[in-house]
Amino acid sequence: MIVTILEIRAQILRFIQKFQLVVEPVVKFIIAFAVFRCINNAIGHQEQLMSLPAELLLSLLGTFTPAIILTLLAAVVSLVHVYVASPLLAILVAVLMVILYCFIARFSGKYGYVVLAIPILFLLKIPYVVPMILGLVATPMTVIPVACGVIVYRMFEVIGSAALVEGATAIEDILLLYIDVIDRLLADKLMIVNIGVFFVMILVMYLMRKLSIEYVFEISIAVGAIVCILGFLITDVILHTQINITSMVFGTVGSMLIALVFQFFRLALDYSAVERVQFEDDDYYYYVKAVPKIHLTVPERSVKKISTNKGTEPEEQKAERLAFLQSGLYSETEEQEEEDGEL
Amino acid sequence: MLNNRKVRLMTRLAMYEQTEGKEDVRLSKYFQTDYVRVNVLKTVVSITFGYLLILLLLVVYHSEYLIREAVTLDYRGMILRYVGLYVIILTVYCALAMIGYMIKYRKSRKKLAKYFRMLRRLRSMYREEDGELTDLEEENVSYDSDNT
Predict the structure, then answer these.
(1) b/e for B36-65, b at 16 or more Cβ within 10 A?
(2) Per the domain annotation, does B75 fall within a domain?
(3) Mind listing the pLDDT tens digit for each residue in B107-133?
């Protein structure tokens, strides 16, 4: 069973390596398409942007440009949608985005795409997968882009609920709407709770995975999931955040599975063949524990064609065969009949 | 004949050059102090801009109150309070940015040093492979010594 799974893993990895030139753009395209689909479903107001050709075109643009362009495109598309619903709110969102960039997002470095991934995965109900994977591969500093992503998502949530009550044109009404949105944003407990729980998850997983125990990555994923569920439950009891507990638990379990699959493809270790060595040099005494990676060599399965293709028979061979037939050792008619039958 | 070791080394070099290497080479053009200073300056600009935007939002938020109390407001205290807050935020950010960019610069230098070590290894491989390079160098050396 395990060998089969490992074989499949090796085959998939080899396939990806072999067709990297094709697989990479395809995956990027699917991600970009999912991003625009989610945005359109969640806050779609602009009809033209919601049409399939526009979505495909935007996704194609996101496929062949760096990740930062996709983030930018997603931000612009969201802003356009909000603008159609309410110009005032769009201005507010744009200003908040710039503030967010100035204070936090510009320090996110190479994890900038996390800012985009969190809101999208929130819409798919599995945002917990991001801190889980970051806990496996990154440092706690990645809480910066995670916090940005959470803020962006909550901002759109709050504004989405505000846009429903909108219909104001008079200046006083606009001011009231603005004050209302700001009040709601500042009073948004869920934003703080999400950032806090995600940060604790990343931190705990980061500290866990430094331990020298067997199956440390799998264990830290499980611990991350427990921290996530407990964190949201405790904060719900204390702060009455009114989160949907079933959706949170299922989302966490789903995220855990995704993280496990990710970990399985990233690194498969053979803990049954751990080697421990001890040695010393002038300055130190070393205790070394070496865990081998699993390398399976998948047997090449090649299909060998037995039947000769008569249509492409080389001239020399044909002449040889004819000579052989003419020598009378073989009845030509039989052979001829067979050929006719095949045709 | 393909030299597997050389191909492997060159691939690793090329991989580094095309990903992290670009940034590291760019960083190596600065001295550490210059690099940190430029980035702290950028941070100052962006924090100032962001803070101004926040102030703008605040002014709009309290606009009714501000207009109503325009005559009786304690402008001096208000300005002092917000400027003070700005200075505190700026100081914290600058300190963090300074530490962060310093660490980043050092890490990048280390990676670059490793890259150069690999380059040297490649060079020595070439030298092993064919005597041409060594001959050439010997010529150069003799030429140099002639000159001096």
Answers:
(1) beebbeebeebbeebbebbeebeebbeeee
(2) yes
(3) 888 888 888 888 888 888 888 876 655
pLDDT in tens, A68-93: 888 889 999 999 988 888 888 888 88
Q: How near does any CA of chain A get to the CA of B97, in Å?
A: 9
Domain residue spans of chain A: 1-85, 86-267
Q: Cα separations (Å) of A182 from A160, A177, A334, B54, B61?
A: 13, 9, 93, 12, 8
pLDDT of residue A156: 87
Q: Number of structural domains, chain B?
A: 1
In a domain, B39, yes or no: yes
- pTM for this model (two decimals): 0.76
CA distance linking residue A181 with residue B70, whole number of Å: 25
Which tens digits make up the pLDDT trace of B6-63?
A: 778 888 888 888 777 888 888 888 888 898 999 999 999 999 999 999 999 988 888 8
> Do the domain assignments include residue B63?
yes
Chain B residues within 8 angstroms (CB to CB) of chain A = 46-47, 49-50, 53-54, 56-57, 60-61, 63-64, 100
